[in-house]
């Protein structure tokens, strides 16, 4: 049984909890102590890969961090999976939590279940704090990551989809600095699904991009098999038919 400290009448504040040795990982939502869900392998690996990708592409004055608290306000500190910080705006050795004015990008990886926080509450907090860029990473039906990229519209104070709103197979963007990487690693659910075993939305929109990126990188394409049997299978697959309009996983 998890023992939670007694809630003060006005709710908790971050500075009251940050040094407490609580026996669980936690978040604060409007001063309420919330136990964080356990990590799954897919989320952990995708976070590590994005952290490495952003780190390799990094240029001054930016730093790339993982699981660090951003001080939206004292009752709603937020810990994105990955964030990019402008080091001219904060001393990372003493800034705790990190001030939103120093944050250039926040990345949230949607959990396998639920995920309303990364769809609604967290982006609203980030936008209100003036953070310029937000990525929401989701697992498509075949097990590969999709990166939804948003830019802050300063006039409305809300996030809008970037010109390339969803990155499948290849992540390529210029903000907060140029980044280009493949998104072909499938890290949960065991063996890759065959094309004719996938829902139509993946067949039509995501899988063709993943196969093309895999071939460009010299990696085996998802669902690959010896050439003859592969040709027979793909030639009869709905991948070769026109998709319905607006289909997306």
UniProtKB/TrEMBL annotation:
SUPFAM superfamilies named in the record: Restriction endonuclease-like
Bias (Low complexity) ranges: 219-238
Gene3D superfamilies: tt1808, chain A (3.90.1570.10)
Region (Disordered): 217-249
Domain Putative restriction endonuclease: 24-164
One matching Pfam family: Uma2
Name of the protein: Putative restriction endonuclease domain-containing protein
């Amino acid at each position: 049984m998890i023992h939670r400290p007694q809630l003060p009448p006005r709710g908790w504040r971050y500075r009251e909890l940050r040094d407490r040795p609580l026996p669980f990982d936690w978040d604060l939502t409007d001063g309420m102590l919330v136990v964080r869900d356990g990590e799954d392998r897919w989320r952990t690996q995708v976070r590590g890969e994005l952290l490495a990708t952003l780190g390799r592409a990094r240029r001054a004055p930016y730093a790339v961090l993982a699981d660090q608290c951003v001080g939206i306000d004292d009752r709603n500190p937020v810990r994105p999976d990955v964030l990019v910080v402008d080091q001219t705006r904060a001393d990372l050795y003493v800034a705790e939590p990190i001030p939103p004015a120093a944050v250039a990008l926040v990345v949230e990886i949607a959990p396998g279940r639920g995920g309303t926080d990364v769809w609604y509450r967290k982006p609203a907090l980030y936008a209100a704090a003036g953070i310029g860029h937000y990525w929401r990473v989701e697992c498509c039906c075949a097990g590969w990551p999709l990166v939804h990229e948003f830019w802050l519209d300063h006039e409305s104070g809300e996030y809008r989809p970037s010109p390339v709103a969803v990155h499948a197979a290849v992540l390529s963007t210029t903000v907060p600095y140029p980044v280009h990487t493949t998104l072909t690693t499938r890290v949960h659910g065991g063996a890759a699904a065959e094309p004719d075993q996938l829902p139509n939305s993946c067949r039509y929109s995501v899988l063709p991009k993943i196969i093309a990126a895999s071939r460009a990188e010299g990696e085996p394409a998802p669902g690959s098999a010896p050439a003859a049997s592969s040709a027979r299978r793909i030639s009869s697959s709905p991948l070769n038919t026109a998709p319905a309009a607006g289909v997306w996983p």
